[in-house]
């Protein structure tokens, strides 16, 4: 019980709750869009540089298994989510494909919150996790677009689906920034990294807290849409991270042999749902899907669930199975 209370009194989480409460109270508190974008760029760059520097000290052979595991999770999770939504919840194919893409991709903000959680407890994690984050961003989007094209009846061979993929998605800013800063962190000289690290390390937690205020406001806004949606979809938003996160625990511990910190982050990656990179792709590639549904589930249900309960739960389970 004390561990759960400590988890709920985590500073970044409380900033998220502050943002949500401000929205519920109809306060005029807002984070300017330009500042929110700047914060997200800063946080992504900080994660990429830190991860790249750690990857530079790791051998190439040690990265192959995590990369393969990330690719497998990024492909299997959206397929499983689509099957559950389409055949268990009887959702139409377009909405099922769009929602599945969100759950197959990853939430960078959830990953950032989880790394902050581990750092606050002095728990180390393997550097390959940043590589896994970068790999898991895009495959689910391609799968979601492919599944939607099949629903249109013109994708029996898959050729039309691949041609429908927006070229801009392959150059998405968050993907480019994350991969680019990983490469910079891996190849830059130690002295030059030491010069910029204070900026990216000492301010990181404060920037994360401000970023989470904005996400709390957005999540509370979307939460109201639950009234318009069926209860089974809301339950999916809670059960999906538990199921997929459990698969991530097994992969992190049994397949990759990670410690408690690394296993926690693999579970968080598998449990998270994207609400930044995927929505633009779905709006462009699957206009038949209802944005309110996939945004409500990913941002209004799954993100706060993971932040408040998923991260501490997965960390507790990872520590238990790692003993």
Report on this structure:
There is one protein chain. Helix 3 crosses helix 7 (128-135). The chain has helices spanning 2-8, 11-24, 33-56, 61-88, 93-104, 108-120, 128-135, 139-151, 159-163, 173-187, 190-202, 204-223, 231-255, 260-271, 278-285, 291-321. The protein has one domain: Na+/H+ antiporter like fold (Up-down Bundle). Helix content is 77%, strand content 0%. The chain is an all-alpha fold and 323 residues long. The two termini are 20 Å apart.
Could you give the order of the helices and strands?
HHHHHHHHHHHHHHHH
Cα distance spanning the termini: 20 Å
The total count of strands amounts to: 0
Largest sheet: none
Q: Structural class, from secondary structure content? A: mainly alpha
Give the class-level CATH name: Mainly Alpha
Strand content: under 5%
Helix content: over 70%
User: How many domain units?
Assistant: 1
CATH architecture: Up-down Bundle
CATH fold naming: Na+/H+ antiporter like fold
Average residue pLDDT: 83
Low-confidence stretches: 155-162
The rough form would be described as: globular
User: Number of helical segments?
Assistant: 16
Rg computed from alpha carbons, rounded to a whole number of angstroms = 19 Å
Q: Can I get a quick summary?
A:
This protein has 323 residues and is mainly alpha-helical. 77% of the residues lie in helices and 0% in strands.
